[in-house]
């Protein structure tokens, strides 16, 4: 068994895939366009995700993409109340915060977050020590450039090899700062500083990232590589998202960050059943003899 205790939950990643829901407390989220910016709506969204079967809720206060600057205090004011309210409402789910700032991570851990989802991959020099001291888990995510900033056109000689080497180096940096290896999760950063061809290759060869030997997160939901691959605008990428997610699971992902929770839970449970990771909920079809009348 490959047991991992993350926050209040214990996961056996040999036998299950964790579903991470998304709550964006931002007015300019690329997906929901501010639908959960209000505190009450954000908390309700997290509770509803848990009710629908999500194991985990990831809360963000600043989108990764370009946009107006958000101060550190504003980011804390956005995420900390949601974390505290959700932790009080549901003590059975993992809560993470999507941030690249050490001071926000500290406030999030104090509010009840068990995981820091750092899309800058320890870009803030103080991040690792905050996580180590707070005894939280770290998601090391590969990206190119800092969030909210203009970036050059994506370029890699070997996207999978370069992403893998970068993740290995950042994991070593986290361990050197005092974060135990069993509290580290890796994310290759689909679309983050990568074009669609890069992300498709990363998805095809995701097993080479999984080979690092740490729990692997895939965050593919509604991203631009899906829209460009099947020519679908935002709001019409659910089928493509589920297909990409399933391929990631087949190639070793054991945590999936997705927006559409009910559909994701069904697709994940079905994939687990096909892979022999879990039995069917019930067995009825063709299990009893039939008689001709």
Explain this structure.
The structure is a single chain. Helix content is 39%, strand content 15%. By secondary structure, it is of the alpha/beta class. Strands 8-7-6-5-4-3-10-9 form an eight-stranded parallel β-sheet. The longest helix is centred in the N-terminal third of the chain and has 18 residues, at 72-89. The chain is globular. The mean pLDDT is 93.
How do the strands and helices of this protein lay out in sequence?
Blueprint: E1 3-6, E2 9-12, E3 18-24, H1 39-51, E4 56-60, H2 72-89, E5 94-98, H3 102-111, E6 115-118, H4 127-134, E7 137-141, H5 159-176, E8 184-187, H6 196-204, H7 206-210, E9 217-218, H8 224-230, H9 238-250, E10 255-257, H10 261-274
> Taking strands numbered 1, 2, ... along the chain, how are they ordered across the largest sheet?
8-7-6-5-4-3-10-9
Q: Estimate the global geometry from the Cα principal axes.
A: globular
By DSSP (H or I, 4+ residues per run), the number of helices equals: 10
CA radius of gyration is 19 Å
Largest sheet: 8 strands, parallel
Q: Assembly state here?
A: single chain
Strand content: 5-15%
